[in-house]
Amino acid sequence: MTKIRIAVQKSGRLNEDSLQILKDCGISIDNGKDQLKATARNFPLEVFYLRNGDIPQYLRDGVVDIAIIGENVLVEKGNDIAVAEKLNFSKCRVSLAVPKGVKYNSVKDFEGKKVATSYPNTVNEYLKSKGVTAELHIINGSVEIAPNIGLAYGICDIVSSGSTLFKNNLKEVEVILQSEAVLAVSPTISEERREILKKIQFRIQSVLQARQNKYILLNAPNDKLDEIISILPGMRSPTVLPLAEEGWSSVHSVITRDTFWEVIDELKQAGAEGILVCPIEKMVL
Ligand SMILES: Nc1ncnc2c1ncn2[C@@H]1O[C@H](COP(=O)(O)OP(=O)(O)OP(=O)(O)O)[C@@H](O)[C@H]1O
Ligand SMILES: O=P(O)(O)OC[C@H]1O[C@H](OP(=O)(O)OP(=O)(O)O)[C@H](O)[C@@H]1O
Ligand SMILES: [Mg+2]
């Protein structure tokens, strides 16, 4: 039977969430330690554990059909590779930063200066688009230390919470791009494997929808129902069922994870009681 081949980061920031999303899609993978390749037990899929930075080339060469990879790595090394889904984890940005003490006016300040980075193509493209020429000092890690040891004027690296910049006495001055984990597709994927990809995409979409929403149940006096329903949009509209007690109803709906505390406050104000909020496992729209 034909299997789709997926690349997942071997170890690092993407590994755990990548395997979790496959698991939430109902795909079981036997995960032996130090195993570089694994086969799913219940889905036509093989997993290859690779370095994030090597994945664009494997996709291009058709060694793997799909991959879970940081979008920033595709910008750097895989502009020719298509993204099938954004996965809503490992969110970060790629930014330029300079020492806190530097008086910074604009990106023109980088003209003729040295920039330390692991993302040379990204920096070059960005500076070129701004008409700035800088010298790049390419290093693979601990980029934030470069200005402090006199290696560079500024840096370009990944920023998330900003704490690495802070600890190294740097300030973020330009955001070049926003990134998150994505499902990327090889330009050479076969039609047969594209059909398997469609199934994975359908499952991923159901999992991501479910993660962003909560199921809410509450009791409401019937004379408050209109107001309560207006607070709860639901997938189509809320479900309303009579309670055994006369004059009361049970209302069921779906609310987004980001807003549910505000929605609960409004519901309580409007007279809702016995509010339950439950996770949703899968959500098919
Ligand atoms: N601090 C962070 N917060 C959120 N996401 C991040 C952060 N740092 C990196 N990422 C994202 O996770 C991806 C993997 O980062 P990680 O540091 O684990 O590996 P790497 O060194 O880029 O790759 P490799 O697997 O080739 O060693 C990055 O490409 C980026 O998309
Ligand atoms: O803004 P923050 O939340 O501090 O995150 C940013 C830091 O995270 C990443 O490093 P990582 O920890 O992945 O180390 P690495 O250089 O070994 O990949 C990145 O290269 C930054 O240094
Ligand atoms: Mg890193």
From TrEMBL:
One of its GO terms (biological process) is L-histidine biosynthetic process. It catalyses: 1-(5-phospho-beta-D-ribosyl)-ATP + diphosphate = 5-phospho-alpha-D-ribose 1-diphosphate + ATP. Keywords: Amino-acid biosynthesis, ATP-binding, Cytoplasm, Glycosyltransferase, Histidine biosynthesis, Magnesium, Metal-binding, Nucleotide-binding, Transferase. Pathway: Amino-acid biosynthesis; L-histidine biosynthesis; L-histidine from 5-phospho-alpha-D-ribose 1-diphosphate: step 1/9. This is ATP phosphoribosyltransferase. Residues 210-282 form the Histidine biosynthesis HisG C-terminal domain. Belongs to the ATP phosphoribosyltransferase family. Long subfamily. Catalyzes the condensation of ATP and 5-phosphoribose 1-diphosphate to form N'-(5'-phosphoribosyl)-ATP (PR-ATP). Has a crucial role in the pathway because the rate of histidine biosynthesis seems to be controlled primarily by regulation of HisG enzymatic activity. Its main location: cytoplasm. Gene3D superfamilies: 3.30.70.120, Periplasmic binding protein-like II (3.40.190.10). One of its GO terms (cellular component) is cytoplasm. PANTHER family: ATP PHOSPHORIBOSYLTRANSFERASE, ATP PHOSPHORIBOSYLTRANSFERASE ATP-PRTASE. The keyword Metal-binding applies.
